[in-house]
UniProtKB/TrEMBL annotation:
GO cellular component, one term: membrane
PANTHER family for this protein: AMINO ACID PERMEASE (PTHR43341), GENERAL AMINO-ACID PERMEASE GAP1 (PTHR43341:SF1)
Pfam families: AA_permease
Protein name, per record: Amino acid permease/ SLC12A domain-containing protein
Domain named Amino acid permease/ SLC12A: residues: 117-570
Topology within the bilayer: Multi-pass membrane protein
Gene3D superfamilies membership: Amino acid/polyamine transporter I
Organism: Pseudocercospora fijiensis (strain CIRAD86)
Highest taxon listed in the record's lineage: Eukaryota
Lineage: Eukaryota, Fungi, Dikarya, Ascomycota, Pezizomycotina
Transmembrane segments: 138-155, 162-179, 191-210, 222-242, 248-268, 338-357, 377-404, 438-456, 462-486, 507-532, 544-562
Residue ranges, compositional bias (Polar residues): 32-45
MF annotations from Gene Ontology: amino acid transmembrane transporter activity
Keywords: Amino-acid transport, Membrane, Transmembrane, Transmembrane helix, Transport
């Protein structure tokens, strides 16, 4: 056997599963196998001889020079073998489906911090200012509460599915599995495109935020775009662990900033700031000559899209299920934090903003997503507090970069999952041995370079239409998750299983998912109304309508493209939707769960014991335990 022959044999063993790349002992065995199969250049017909025999017979050194030549040859041979092994491992690193992830690095602290503070970003700190201008403080408060209820119910449904099926692609694959592959294809790609286009938008917003500080206005944005992109690349080098560590730190900073602002807001409203000449404010900005509701019903409807954008990223907890150490334990814990984050970091902060900043404040006016128009910064400026606006501006900058970091995670995992399931180019399914979807990361960072478009004179118009392609994607995703949960429960019951067998149950069950669907539909209708009759005037504008609602026709186009393709290439995807009896509830189920539910060797006693264990884990706690748990989660 020649050297090339030994490598070929090793490659065949490696790819057939006999030598998995993750086993260090197999690597040593493979290296020894390849090294011992090196053929002597003087041997005839490529006969294989032992390494030690080869050294003794063929290269018996007669002097020191010969000894050095012999040692050099052996070293070079070993280097070649090790390099070959590395290349083979890299070549075999492309995995399929839910198996692509490799090491699971998101621990409990990362997941909870990411879920609690990961979604707090530009939508809350900056975007809420536009909502106050168009709807007024009461509309903002009610709108955020309504959308918050929808988010909480959606997260409960997603947690139930993610614990049972912690697969790569999460909710995109749930839509494919429980509703229809074509609808899952359309929702998945629109969701991925949303993150692809939001990244350059967030980078541009970060540049505008930097311009808040004196002396930075004269510097070209390109000088800021490059280092911001480099920072994102550096995070991606460390894979999901890098994402988790960075999000953990940024989430803690954002949570502390929100808590600090709540304390400050109460002090400002009560007239406790010496530099604030307004004194006690109370509810002055909710009464005449101000107004709690601006622009009537129009203004109220306009709040929903802003609220959904502010909550963007909450669903990433479900997307991270496949990269969590213990999905059964961590996903429910993280999902249950949603109600606290909505109630405290969003509702309380926005209530205080509405009390201490008039909705018609001239400081809101201006173009662009700069922190000068952030209601949080405006509140501090109106109170006359020095230096603190700059500090909070830095927090907003970190929040925007946190969203940019989430962009790379959300898009890469979604696109890789779609490609791995045959719904995208095979190149995008590639993942290295450390679990990093390298091809998709490169694609995402190339989209990040679109931030340079804003340097052009009409660059903002291009961004507007790019964002319009996926502006409503979150509503479609959230509604589809709720529908997937409803259909899962129906298929679960059809297969003879009870709700007690579920490792985690959504707080309000199927009824919660139905309420989520209804709220979702109402939000879509409200946005359609605002797009058809904008606040700026009674006249219908095709440009304004498609800027607000282009995502709808785009989603339908994606659906028809895959349905047409499936008609010829994938006959199993031809039906309009998957019938309940055709849903395979066991496929993709977490390890061990299927055995305890349907295993032929499991006795009825073992099955009952498993159900009792699940019920014990999910037993209802008393009021005292609930309060203590809530306080601990907040801290």
């Amino acid at each position: 056997m020649t050297f090339s022959g030994s490598v070929g044999a090793y490659s065949r063993r490696h790819r057939s599963g006999q030598c998995p790349p993750s086993s260090s002992s197999d690597r040593r065995t493979s290296a020894k196998f390849a090294t011992n199969s090196i053929a002597s250049p003087t041997s005839r017909r490529g006969a294989t001889i032992d390494e030690n025999t080869y050294a003794e017979r063929s290269f018996r050194p007669a002097n020191k020079t010969g000894q050095r030549l012999h040692n050099n040859y052996i070293v070079k041979s070993l280097v070649i073998v090790l390099l070959t092994e590395h290349l083979l491992e890299a070549g075999d690193a492309k995995l399929r489906g839910e198996d692509f992830l490799g090491p699971q690095c998101l621990n409990s602290s990362m997941l909870i911090a990411t879920d609690s503070g990961g979604a707090i970003g530009a939508g809350l700190f900056i975007g809420s200012g536009g909502a106050f201008q168009s709807g007024g403080p009461a509309s903002v408060l009610i709108g955020f509460i309504i959308v918050g209820v929808m988010i909480y119910l959606m997260m409960q449904a997603l947690a139930e599915l993610a614990v049972m099926y912690p697969i790569n692609g999460a909710f995109t694959m749930y839509i494919v599995k429980f509703i229809d592959p074509s609808w899952g294809f359309a929702c998945g790609w629109q969701y991925a495109i949303q993150w692809l286009t939001v990244l350059p938008f967030e980078i541009s917003a970060a540049c505008n935020i930097i311009h808040y500080w004196p002396g930075s206005q004269g510097i070209n944005n390109a000088a800021w775009i490059v280092p911001l992109l480099v920072a994102l690349v550096a995070i991606q080098v460390f894979g999901v662990k890098g994402y988790g560590e960075v999000e953990f730190v940024l989430s803690v900073i954002k949570i502390l900033a929100c808590i600090g602002f709540m304390i400050l807001g109460i002090i400002i409203n009560c007239g406790g700031v010496p530099t604030d000449n307004r004194g006690y404010i109370g509810g002055e900005y909710w009464t005449a000559p101000y107004s709690a509701f601006l622009n009537g019903f129009h203004g109220f409807c306009s709040v929903f899209v802003t609220a959904s954008f502010a909550y963007t990223g909450t669903e990433l907890t479900g997307l991270a299920a496949a990269e969590t150490e213990n999905p059964r334990k961590e996903i429910p814990r993280a999902s249950n934090q949603v109600v606290w984050r909505i109630a405290i970091f969003y509702v309380v902060n926005l209530l205080l903003i509405g009390l201490i900043v008039p909705a018609n404040s001239p400081l809101y006016s201006g173009e662009g997503s700069t922190s000068r128009h952030s209601p949080f910064v405006i509140a501090i400026q109106l109170a006359g507090i020095k230096a603190l606006p700059s500090i909070f501006n830095a927090v907003i900058l970190l929040a925007v970069m946190s969203v940019a970091n989430s962009c790379t995670f959300g898009s890469t995992r979604t696109i890789q999952a779609l490609a791995a399931h045959g719904m995208g180019p095979k190149l995008l399914a590639y993942v290295d041995k450390k679990g990093r979807p390298v091809s998709v990361v490169i694609l995402q960072l190339l989209f990040g370079c679109l931030a340079f478009i804003n340097l052009a004179e009409n660059g903002g118009d291009i961004f507007t239409w790019l964002l319009a392609l996926s502006g409503l994607s979150l509503f479609f995703i959230y509604g589809s998750i709720a529908l997937s949960h409803i259909r899962f429960r129906k298929a679960w019951a059809l297969n003879g299983h009870s709700v007690d067998e579920l490792p985690f149950k959504a707080a309000f069950g199927v009824w919660g998912s139905w309420v989520c669907l209804i709220i979702n539909f109402i939000c879509l209708v409200a946005q359609f109304y605002v797009a058809l009759y904008p606040i700026s005037g009674p006249q219908l504008s095709a440009e304004l309508f498609f800027e607000a609602y282009l995502a709808g026709p785009f989603l339908v186009a994606l659906y028809l493209i895959w349905k047409t393709y499936s008609w010829f290439a994938r006959p199993e995807h031809r039906p309009l939707f998957i019938r309940t009896r055709d849903i395979d509830i066991y496929d993709g189920m977490r390890e061990g769960q299927r055995t305890m539910i349907s295993g032929v060797d499991v006795t009825e006693g073992q099955r009952r014991a498993s159900i009792a264990e699940l019920q014990d884990e999910k037993r209802k706690k008393g009021v005292k335990d609930w309060v203590v748990s809530g306080v601990r989660n907040i801290i």
